[in-house]
Amino acid sequence: MKTKFVLSYIFGLLWLAVSLWFAIFWAGELTTVWPAWYVWGVIGGIALLPGFLMSSMFFSNLLHRKVRQYPDTAESVTVIMCAHNEEEQIAGAIRAVLNQRYRGCIRLLVVDNASTDGTRGEILLQKAYADGCRRRLEYLYCGKKGKAHALNCALKRVCTKHFITVDADTYLEKQAVQKIMNHICACQSGCVAGNLFVKNPRASLAAAMQNYDYLLSIAAVKRFQGSYRSTLVAQGAFSAYDTAAVRQVGGWKDVLGEDIVLTYQLLEKGFGSEYQAAAVGYTTVPETISGLYNQRKRWAVGMLEGLSTVRPWQQGSIYSRHFSLVNLSVIWLDLAFLFGFVPGLLLAALGYFYLAGCLTLTTLAVCLVFFLSTYLYQKQLHIPFYNSVWGFVWFLAVFQMIQSTAAIHGYLLRLLHRKGEWK
Questions:
Q1: Which helix (H) or strand (E) covers residue 196, if one does?
Q2: Which of 192, 206, 226, 227 has the most other CB atoms within 10 Å of its CB?
Q3: What does the alpha-carbon distance between residue 173 and residue 193 come to, in Å, rounded to a whole number?
Q4: Cα 360 to Cα 261: distance, rounded to the nearest angstrom
């Protein structure tokens, strides 16, 4: 593990050295137009740092290209599913859990978090699909609103060594529980994040864009971090946990990014946080631009909550410390993109190729190679996902603009100590 990490960063540093050589000439021209601090801030944020991080990740994922296989386990497991006004989707999510091809027993705890619609009725109707022995379904009610409260309510009822969290709008692939349980049982980690595909990519252009964010960007980052037992987000939508470890850190905090903060706390205590690509869940994503914007704003707040709860230098391993610092640098990348790259494109449209030109096209070509490698990795799982040319084009063209704008909004909210909804 250490050797592959070092080799990946040597590759990244070589890429950085070549990029810096070109950047010196580039910056020399730009400093005749703009202040040096702005020029280097933009070049560092849109070219040097992204190039270093992406090349390191690409090489590391290439070294870890084989999907790891683990012996099948039949250990009993608890699945926690929290719901707040989810009457339209929860029935399918419950049946996907109860119909798992898993060798062991599954006890599904569904927590109704103060729903005001027909969620309770939908949950109780699904008891017909549980056999009461190998597949059990239990209804819990949590009157205190907030996802963390609902999760902690269920945690008190967990009596298995491991448990899994699944969102009420996430449908698990048939062998998802088997794959993720094989991993956490074999590796004895604190948590293992599953691989999320988009369930509703045909719903809108916004959903089609997110399909490629999950399929390419999010999956690649989780593979990179998980290869060193340092996945920074074991997402609540589908992840497995060691029960004793979660209880040791006190369960979930009542914050917007409760899953992020929990993962950071587990890493701080020295528990491994891994990723299992073969354990797939199909999650429902926002179908409007405003919904996407609000979601990514919450994620940005959650990232800062995690970093403020456990500082990068407090993390339990050198790998988790490194990836936490990288997460902190994302703020720089977002600022550089919005205040450097976007203005650069606008200037290029007017014929002024200061910040966007031939080198920008080269960067795009490198990104396409990186995305292709991740796409081929996902294809080898032989688990279906949706493809859309227009979705990919829009993902390349406008997704990052929405993402960075929403993220900066989230950073400001965190600085102002504003609080939002749990979902």
A1: strand 191-198
A2: 192
A3: 14
A4: 36
**Close Cβ partners of 410 (under 8 Å, ≥ 6 residues apart):** 296, 297, 298, 299, 300, 301, 303, 304
Q: For residue 239, give both structure tokens.
A: 């992840």
What is the pairing mode between strands 191-198 and 273-283? parallel
- At 7, give phi and psi (nearest 5°): -60, -40
Q: What is the pLDDT of residues 339-369, one digit of tens each?
A: 999 998 888 888 887 777 666 667 777 788 8
Instruction: Give the separation between CA 176 and CA 90, rounded to whole angstroms.
Output: 18
403, 337 contact by CB (below 8 A):
no
Dist. CA 183–CA 76, nearest whole Å: 14
Residues 6+ apart with CB under 8 A from 349: none
Q: How confident is the model at residue 422 (pLDDT cuts 50, 70, 90)?
A: very low
Are the C-beta atoms of 219 and 153 separated by less than 8 Å? no
Tokens 């998802």 appear where?
176
Q: For the whole prediction, is pTM greater than 0.90?
A: yes
Q: Which helix (H) or strand (E) holds 138?
A: strand 135-142
What gap in Å lies between CA 193 and CA 204, rounded to an integer? 27
CA distance 222 to 276: 9
- Cβ atoms of 27 and 348 closer than 8 Å: no
In this predicted structure, the answer to whether residue 421 has a pLDDT above a threshold of 60 is no
Query: What tens digit of pLDDT does each residue of 264-302 get?
Result: 999 999 999 999 999 999 999 999 999 999 999 999 999
For 321, counting Cβ atoms within 10 Å of its Cβ (0-12 exposed, 13-18 middle, 19+ buried), the class is middle
Measured between alpha carbons, how far is 195 from 276 in angstroms, rounded to an integer? Answer: 6
Do 400 and 286 form a contact (C-beta atoms < 8 A)? no
Angle at 114 between CA 109 and CA 117, to 5 degrees: 100
* Torsion sign across C-alpha atoms 227, 49, 267, 75: negative
